[in-house]
From TrEMBL:
PROSITE patterns: AMIDASES. GO terms for biological process: translation. Its EC number is 6.3.5.7. The lineage of its organism: Bacteria, Bacillati, Actinomycetota, Actinomycetes, Micrococcales. The gene is gatA. It comes from the Bacteria. Keywords: ATP-binding, Ligase, Nucleotide-binding, Protein biosynthesis. This is Glutamyl-tRNA(Gln) amidotransferase subunit A.
Amino acid sequence: MTDLTRLSAAALAEKLSAGDVSSVEATQAHLDRISAVDGDIHAFLHVSDHALEVASDIDRRRAAGESLGALAGVPLAIKDVLVTTDMPSTSGSKILEGYMSPYDATVVARARAAGLVPLGKTNMDEFAMGSSTEHSAYGPTRNPWDLDRIPGGSGGGSAAAVASFEAPLALGSDTGGSIRQPAHVTGTVGLKPTYGGVSRYGAIALASSLDQVGPVTRTVLDSGLLHDVIGGHDINDSTSLAHAWPSFAAAAREGASGEVLKGLRIGVIKELPDSGFQAGVSESFRAALAAMEAQGAEIVEISAPHFEYGVAAYYLILPAEASSNLAKFDSVRFGLRVDVPGGTVEDVMAATRDAGFGDEVKRRIILGTYALSAGYYDAYYGSAQKVRTLIQRDFDAAFASVDVIATPSAPTTAFKLGEKIDDPLQMYLNDVTTIPANLAGVPGISIPSGLAAEDGLPVGIQFLAPAHEDARLYRVGAALEALLVDSWGGPLLDRAPVLGSNGGSR
């Protein structure tokens, strides 16, 4: 009998449409999988009480002959940064423990309207601040490849849920790499859309000029299918682009033929040396490029001289915006309230924020408040924005000569839990290759490129494209995916050593 949890979302959707399996059966299979393995993984903060009810309704509508979306009946995990009416929305923080939103995030509403079945809310670094999901107020998520290692962050819960076959699809958010870096370390596919290409309405804000919602999947086609559902203009989001988007699923199907690689110009950044990158990461990156070159792609050295300043600029811009966005958690309107007998409003606010925010959030609020303070604004925040402009110009110059830019998705494979928790700088440097895309607003995708020779853990390759050219990433990503899956003899995740197909950890 087919293990429904091992099917891609596209394959599961075909079985649902053909009537070979019901949504209730597919949903129950994934709920059973969560019960079996999530005690080890801790990908979910909350599992829906309504999933089977929703699935049953999809089955009823399909039986009645109703026209349904391409993914109708397919289960979906939702990063806890996205608000939902029927499940708590905490953003991984104690300050929002138990919070029930009066509305759904736009992407959640669109997923429901398309007939996807929400399974639950996934774990994350508190307010999306982190690269390891160790900063969650509710405990860390573990990597399905090695339970002693991190699943990336901030969206480690979504990536781990998909990698451990607890969900075929997940929603994530990416402010500086929080979709792509977890994809890199878990052997999954993660895409950050063009800024404004997917609505942020109902995504609990971290840094509003950087945040972007996107798909987390096991295949490029699955990512395109989910992107087609959640993308497009939203009047509720002032940054949403009124742009005509093509079908991303169609782009992925087109790319799978491999023809797109002939004559494709792939830029490799000369200022991104191997030093600082794990040997297995660099080797996998070069091997993927060689495979594409053998199919007719052209590898072009490009210059992006300001990328090296991206991390420094980002860690001024993000904390400054976070300081402003998180000011709303004041103990007065919603969320946690710590009463101080005889105290003033300011006393209550201070006690609440001290108890409700974790150390990393406090660190970034302090840094951001300082960067915005009188006398320092121009020296820090203003200078960081100037660097951002220079990085955008680097992209413009590069894309005048190449179709896509390729980099390793992150410098190392998954590190061990606790290894970098007390070293913020080393944690921040995990996003050295992903941050520039957020600063410039361009789309980026990470797809699995193999296993590092020294530790057998997954490695990803990242492609970046000009703004609005998300479809180009789907074509290129699907082309490389097809090449690599053929060379591996099957999906990379089939080689994950920890989790069996029918039970908990081995």
